[in-house]
């Protein structure tokens, strides 16, 4: 399994942590799964999240592979390797934090650090049957994380339980404090998804005993498109120069080349959508604690199928909008009636990551009883 770019043993004997190779570890090059960065100089210092993990007594077990330059969601990478999905080897591991999710699912790490710019923590977590959190934008330090500048990217943890996600947040974010939840007010966002996924979501909510009411997010589709415009523009700014090397893989090179066509007018329109969609979510969450919806509209594609669409951007339909808005969002693993992996996404108010994780824990514990 091509999970690790390099195995390591740094730190003490606390929780084992795998680190996505867009996050600096001192003495190691940050290659982001790209041949174009194969000769990158070793990082001179740890990313802040890595330093916090080591200070908390964690043991860094390795740097994980990813979809090249974190610009794709299948996790397929023919240069640094495509991690095998540990539970469903015929399916994609998801991306871009493919190796991080696979390391956790394979039991090689207690939690992993990934990055999420358009679903890149939540998608691989859902594909590999584990939990993944995109924190509130700006809450977790991005110092020492590629790309340097972003208005949508977040460092987030992946783990096999909500409890371990909370432990990870305590380690990487000193402001995080756990909380409990008794009767959360839940809004179920109306979306079009595979009926079997909807049934899995319904069963998970019913088992937890929580009550919910149906709500609409009218701006969801526009926010998805706006999120694509923003990631395209920001990735061209941060990574576009690598096209000159001629060493970027075909699928990512095509995306970067196409992304260069995004206009200032399109970015201005995307920022208008960002403001409107953020306000729409905030208004809903005045009367509700969290919103829930499937993590993905369909089941993860087979590896062979995904090779025909390596970016598979449609997988991010329900997750990318919350990168645009900046709200915290966690995916809870579900098993559908056909035995395939699915996910329940829980979205909360900005700064209330602990409440989002408390609801995730309640849903997941009820389902396992």
UniProtKB/TrEMBL annotation:
<feature type="domain" description="Amidase">
    <location>
        <begin position="17"/>
        <end position="357"/>
    </location>
</feature>
<dbReference type="InterPro" id="IPR020556">
    <property type="entry name" value="Amidase_CS"/>
</dbReference>
<dbReference type="GO" id="GO:0003824">
    <property type="term" value="F:catalytic activity"/>
</dbReference>
<protein>
    <recommendedName>
        <fullName>Indoleacetamide hydrolase</fullName>
    </recommendedName>
</protein>
<dbReference type="InterPro" id="IPR000120">
    <property type="entry name" value="Amidase"/>
</dbReference>
<comment type="function">
    <text>Hydrolyzes indole-3-acetamide (IAM) into indole-3-acetic acid (IAA).</text>
</comment>
<dbReference type="Pfam" id="PF01425">
    <property type="entry name" value="Amidase"/>
</dbReference>
<dbReference type="InterPro" id="IPR023631">
    <property type="entry name" value="Amidase_dom"/>
</dbReference>
<dbReference type="InterPro" id="IPR036928">
    <property type="entry name" value="AS_sf"/>
</dbReference>
């Amino acid at each position: 399994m091509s999970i690790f770019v390099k195995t390591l043993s740094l730190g003490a004997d606390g929780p084992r942590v795998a680190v996505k190779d867009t996050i600096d570890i001192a003495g190691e090059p940050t290659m982001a799964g790209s041949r174009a960065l194969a000769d990158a100089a070793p990082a001179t210092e740890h990313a802040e999240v890595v330093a916090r993990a080591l200070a908390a007594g964690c043991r860094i077990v390795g740097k994980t592979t990813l979809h090249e330059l974190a610009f794709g969601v299948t996790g397929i990478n023919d240069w640094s390797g495509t991690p095998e999905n540990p539970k469903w080897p015929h399916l994609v591991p998801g991306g871009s934090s493919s190796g991080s999710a696979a390391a956790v699912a394979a039991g090689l790490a207690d939690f992993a650090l990934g990055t999420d710019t358009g679903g890149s923590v939540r998608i691989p977590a859902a594909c590999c049957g584990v939990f993944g959190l995109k924190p509130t934008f700006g809450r977790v330090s991005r110092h020492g994380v590629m790309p340097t500048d972003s208005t949508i990217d977040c460092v987030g943890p992946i783990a096999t339980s909500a409890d371990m996600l909370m432990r990870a947040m305590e380690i990487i974010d000193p402001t995080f404090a756990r909380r409990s939840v008794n009767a959360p007010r839940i809004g179920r966002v109306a979306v079009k998804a595979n009926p079997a996924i909807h049934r899995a979501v319904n069963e998970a909510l019913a088992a937890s005993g929580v009550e919910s009411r149906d709500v609409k997010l009218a701006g969801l589709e526009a926010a998805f498109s706006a999120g694509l415009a923003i990631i395209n523009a920001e990735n061209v700014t941060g990574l576009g120069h690598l096209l000159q090397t001629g060493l970027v893989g075909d699928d990512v090179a095509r995306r970067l080349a196409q992304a260069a066509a995004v206009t200032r007018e399109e970015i201005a329109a995307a920022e208008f959508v960002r403001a409107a969609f953020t306000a729409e979510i905030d208004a809903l969450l005045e009367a509700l604690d969290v919103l829930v919806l499937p993590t993905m509209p369909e089941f993860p594609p087979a590896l062979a199928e995904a090779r025909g669409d390596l970016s598979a951007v449609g997988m991010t339909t329900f997750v990318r909008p919350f990168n645009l808005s900046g709200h915290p969002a966690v995916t809870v693993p579900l098993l559908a009636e056909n035995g395939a992996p699915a996910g329940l996404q829980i979205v909360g108010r900005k700064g209330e990551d602990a409440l989002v994780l408390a609801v995730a824990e309640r849903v997941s514990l009820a389902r396992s009883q």
